[in-house]
UniProtKB/TrEMBL annotation:
Keywords, alphabetical: DNA-binding, Phosphoprotein, Transcription, Transcription regulation
CDD domains xref list: LuxR_C_like, REC_NarL-like
An example molecular function term from Gene Ontology annotations: DNA binding
Superkingdom: Bacteria
Record Pfam families: GerE, Response_reg
Domain (Response regulatory) ranges: 7-125
Any one of the GO BP annotations: phosphorelay signal transduction system
Protein name, UniProt field: DNA-binding response regulator, NarL/FixJ family, contains REC and HTH domains
Domain named HTH luxR-type: residues: 151-216
4-aspartylphosphate modification, residue list: D58
Taxonomic source organism: Streptomyces indicus
InterPro entries assigned: CheY-like_superfamily, NreC/VraR/RcsB-like_REC, Sig_transdc_resp-reg_C-effctor, Sig_transdc_resp-reg_receiver, Tscrpt_reg_LuxR_C, WalR-like
Keyword Nucleus among record annotations: no
Amino acid sequence: MTGTPIRVLLADDQRLVRAAFAMLVESARDMEVVAQAGTGREAVELARAERADLVVMDIRMPDLDGIEATRLIAEDEDLAGVKVLVLTTYDTDEHIIEALRAGASGFLVKDTKPAELLDAIRTVAAGESLLSPGPTSRLIARVLRAPAAPPTGGPEGLSEREREVLTLVARGLNNTEIAESLGLSPLTAKTHVSRIMGKLGARDRAQLVICAYESGLVAPGGGGA
């Protein structure tokens, strides 16, 4: 292994779940578990104390839920480099959009394969956002029944190609998949995504997804507006 291991903080109120995640993370040569939290408040405190690179955050926790814990971490200037990856059981949890608005860099469902979770940790720790493709449109359709104002701006100032790229981002496609879908090179797709983020003032891909759905560019249910 080369470089410094990714420092991971695990936050989940179930000890057995934390233990399983800890064993998985420690099995990877490029990451380590630096702390474990059983409540949202503890997660915030340990994030400040341990300066983890990434927090794997459960949403439903006692004392302080994962959404508010994520918000406190994202708003703390001293924790500017700490990323949050939310895990959820999407069939019962309707707070993902709130978590993304609060500052989470992405989410995965809890039945994600172990290798995919490790890859997700690497992706988010590297500064990219990650959205679990399968439930993305279905989940967002459920939680946007009473949409708030977009956190960034509308897509009106985007070119037609940029609107196409934004639509695919909202459906959970990564840059390589976007490139294949539109007949572009991966670098060009990445450039489009970066330019869209700049135009909309978005922090990451997660906010792009929120903007696409809340602006009506992508209709709940998966189709374009």
